[in-house]
C-alpha cells in the first residue's frame, strides 16, 4: 500500500481553464488527475446535443485534452477520473480510444466505462410502479411534468469507479457521478478502505468536495483579502495529498499563482454544503462540523478529524425539463439622470407590453449599476450615476409573446428617454427555459455497469 497519493484537480466545470489539466500534469508529481465537467443543467445541454447528433452528448473538450496529456500520463503512470461522459459515456470512451490509437498507445492503457445513471428510458416503468420521483423542494410528483422531461440521471457514487480502477483502468469515464466520488474512488482503490469505514470515506468525500470546483479553493473567487491573492493569471489548481488514515493536505504545485490558505479552504467547504452535520452522498454521510484545519507550511493546509456515518438508502436524481421560454434585453443609459432614464424606459416598455395584450409568467427588471446585485438591500443610489444598464427579462409558455417582447427593446432608442446606447448586439434571442427537478430514488433501483476496455 502506498503511504501517500496525490490527486490533482484539473477542471471545476465544463468551460474551466483549458490548460489547467496540462499544467497539473506537467507542473510536478501527481498520481491522479480528477476532471469534473458536469453541473445539473449540463446534462440537459448534452441530451439536446445527442438528439441532434447520436455521436455527441459528452464534454468535447475532454478529447483534445487527452490527446495533449495522454502520452505523459502513460509515461508518468498518472490515472484520470472524469465525468466527461455526460449522456454518452460509450461515445466519449470510443473517442478517447481513437486518440490513444492515433498516439501509438494501443495496448498500453485501459479505459474504464461507468454507466447506469441514465434513467430516461425507464421513467414510465418507474412511475408505473409508483416510484413517483417527487420534487424534493415542492413534493410534486414527476408525472406533472412527464411530457417535458429532457434528461434524468441518478448520481452514482465512488464504488463503480473503484471497480474500474481495480480492473486496471488508467482512464475512468463516467456520466452523472458525484463530484466528490471522482476523488474518493482513487483513495478507496489505493488504500483499500472498506465500504463501512465511514470516517475515512467521509474524509475522502470532503477532500473531493474541497477540490471539486478547481481553483475556487486555491485563490480563485476568494472573498478573503482578494486584492492580496498573488498572480491569479497563473493560478495553481489544488492537489489533495492523502494518507491511508484519511488525513490529507491541500496544496498546489510550486511556482504557481493563487494561494492555499485556511480561509480559502473554509470558503469552499461551505459551498453547496447544506446541513453541515449531514452532507449526503451515495457513499456516506459526512459531518462537516468535525473538520479540523491547520497549516503545515506555505500553501499547505492539513485536514483531519473528519467523522462520517452510513449512507442513506436513496440516490439523488437530477432531472431537467422544459419550462417555457425566456428572453433578456438590455440598454445602457448615460449621465445625466441615468438611473431616472432607465426607470422611465422600464415603465414605457411595460406599458407597451400591456397595450399589446401580451401575457407573461414573469417580467423582471434590474438596473445594473444601481441595484442588480443587491436588489432592495441596495436602497436608492446616492449621487448621479454615470451610467445604468436597464436589463429586462420575460418568461412565458407562449413563445410568440416572448418573440414580440424582443422586438420592443430597440424602439426605445428613439421613442424613449435620451442618452441610450449599448444596443449593438441586436435583438435579444428567445431561449428555452430548462428547469431543475431534484428527486430521490431507492438505491436498489439503480444498477451501475462497469466495463474496462483495452485502448
What does this structure look like?
This protein has 455 residues and is α+β, with helices and mostly antiparallel strands. It has 2 domains: 5-117 and 155-312, no CATH class; 320-434, Alpha-Beta Plaits. 27% of the residues lie in helices and 25% in strands. The protein has 12 helices and 19 strands. A hairpin with a 5-residue loop joins strand 7 and strand 8. The two termini are 27 Å apart. The mean pLDDT is 95.
Strand and helix layout:
Blueprint: E1 5-11, H1 20-26, E2 32-35, H2 40-52, H3 62-75, E3 79-82, H4 89-102, E4 110-115, H5 123-128, E5 149-154, H6 159-166, E6 171-174, H7 181-191, H8 198-211, E7 239-242, E8 248-251, H9 262-269, E9 279-280, E10 285-287, E11 292-297, E12 300-304, E13 307-309, E14 314-334, H10 338-355, E15 362-368, E16 387-396, H11 399-406, H12 412-415, E17 420-421, E18 431-442, E19 449-454
Parallel strand pairs: 1-2, 2-3, 3-6, 4-6
Antiparallel strand pairs: 1-7, 4-19, 5-14, 7-8, 8-12, 9-10, 10-13, 11-12, 14-16, 14-17, 14-18, 15-16
Helix pairs in contact: 1-3, 3-4, 6-7, 7-8
Which secondary-structure class do the elements indicate? alpha+beta
What is the number of strand segments?
Answer: 19
The largest sheet is: 10 strands, mixed
Average pLDDT over all residues: 95
Shape: globular
Q: How many distinct domains?
A: 2
Radius of gyration: 25 Å
